[in-house]
Amino acid sequence: MRSYRELFRTPEYTPFFLSFAAQNAALTISGLALATLVYRATASPLLSAVSMFGPQLAQMLGATFFLSGADRLPPRATLTGINTAFAVCTALLALPGLPIAAVFALVFLQGLIASLGGGVSGGLLNEILSKEGYLLGRSVFNMASGLMQVTGFAAGGALLALVAPRVCLLLASGLYLTTALVLRLGLTARPPRTAGRPSVAATWRTNAVLWSSRPRRLTYLGMWIPNGLIVGCESLYVSYDPGSAGALFASAALGMFVGDLTLGRFVPATLRARLDIPLRLLLATPYLFFALRPGMPWAAIAVCLASIGYGASLVLQERLMELTPGELAGHALGLRSAGMLSMQGIGAALAGTVAQLTSPATAMTLVAVASVAVTVVLAVLGRQVRGEVAEVQTA
Predict the structure, then answer these.
(1) For residue 63, how far is the Cα from the chain centroid?
(2) Separation CA 281–CA 279 (nearest Å)
(3) Tens of pLDDT along 343-393?
(4) DSSP string, 162-228
(5) Which one, of 374, 370, 375, 367, lies nearest residue 351 by Cα?
(6) DSSP assignment, residue 290?
(7) What pLDDT, in 10s, does the model give residues 47-97?
């Protein structure tokens, strides 16, 4: 499968894609609105960052206890239920006078619910598309995520200039309901991929199997840590420049779109497999420029360039699927998603804490340095693993 036309002719791919796009638009609009609401109420970079990326902090907890459901629950019903629950939670966040503690309780609940969604969606995409079409299909999903973030943050920034953040939250709630409807009407009712009931024990067993392989461990860490630290930089856009935060988020999404389009459509597989480390370094190094506290448009250019490096996740997802048995694909992708989003929440909390003690620009610079250091360490460890494998093969 090499063309977009062939991809969108695949049964069920189009409604699944449209639901994904609507969900991402809702996430960006609600995230920006909630971060703005919390920052106006508290003037705290830490609380603003955690309110926007806090749901991710609950992802690993959900992955620890609930992820076995990714392959053991019917996909259509599960995804429809998840988006309906998100609509309800987002509407509750719009209630006037809601205490900050209640805001973070709802944010945490959203994270627990979302921890199941990544695995169910990834496994379903693996069923809808052939093995040869998975990377192209996944790259289109990533590009849609980037475009919807550009659209969502631009629309969110414009809406926040015209209406209250709570109105934006209600609009996002409506988008979640639309997503649930598209999923319910556009997808076929499929049985679970794996027999058995979801359980904590099953989740732990499969997590242990996936984590037992050193190449898979390094692949997971490569997807989680550098990405999460740079999302920590992004979580400071509101406190770095409240008036231009929407433009910075849109620039980041544009860069991600360019990276995914280039890797998914134009880069040969043999070259693509060697680009994960350069792309992860690209993801972090432009943020070192923030040590100079640049204004617009230089900050937006740096952010856009850095976000091209998010394309590394495509390379690493492809590698993960090569290292994982087909019957565990949903769980493996769910663990990828939950771990990545959890690290994004940790990165937001870390960056917000450093910003609270120093400044947003200083925090972004220091976190970028940490991301570069982690990438270099993982690259050395990965080279050692490949050397050990080569020795075994030649023995």
Answers:
(1) 15
(2) 5
(3) 887 888 899 899 989 999 999 999 999 999 999 999 999 887 766 555 434
(4) HS-HHHHHHHHHHHHHHHHHHHHHHS-----SS-S---HHHHHHHHHHHHTSHHHHHHHHHHHHHHH
(5) 367
(6) G
(7) 777 776 666 666 667 766 666 676 778 888 889 999 999 999 999 999 988
